[in-house]
Here is the input.
Amino acid sequence: MVQALCTKFSPPLLSFPEEDITYHPFPPPSILAESGVSATLRSLGFGYRADFIHRTAKMLVDAHGKIPHPHDSSEASEKWLMGLRNSATEVAREELLKFVGVGRKVADCVLLMSMDKREVVPVDTHVYQIAMKYYGLKGSSGPNGKKVNMTPKIYSDVNSKLFNVWGEYAGWAHSVLFTADLKSFASYGLPTPEGSAPSPSPKKLSRLPTEVLPVPPMAPLLSSPQKRPRWGNDIESPTSNLEDLVLAERVKRRRRIA
Here is the structure.
């Protein structure tokens, strides 16, 4: 859906004709705030999200404007959103919760994945089960094993538990735990035990995103010699080689799938 939205509302940014791939940037709020956007988004398969996106973009433009900064192309509303990165987590969350269709989990996803709030843990019933299974959080899966309804207290308890374990990187730890617990990844890339069904092939998993596990920023980890992590001999400089390693892995994966 994000690809469809960007393709529809933004001009091409970068193309690779030999691979028939074209990348489009995310459109500015003023474009998504225009009349008729909701209907177009519904035609692209956004369903109920169409109105939320249009109304949220309009709220941004009405409150903060759309005049570009004189020295770059960002709109005033985008500048305001980016400024939330420098706000305290609670302040930024309070602002996000004002938007249409944004609840606690969506706000926390944005805080973690877009606003550098590494300690934030977006919680759903799956993350709740992980906290009980691996970290001793007291709770219940509900009657007859059914999913328990997420309450503010359960949400807070899971947040506190994982933050007490992982500290300021609790959000990144949550992302690793969440992905590792998915059945799709349980045996991916591992040898098939004798007598068992074969593991899913890369071809069958080709619809999965290649960037399943986002890489946390390295600068904070390397800010002092005392906190410098140990790296394998094959990685001499994480800050200089990380992007090359990630890119190389994506190319290898694309070739395997092809």
Observations:
- The CA atoms of residues 153 and 231 lie 39 Å apart.
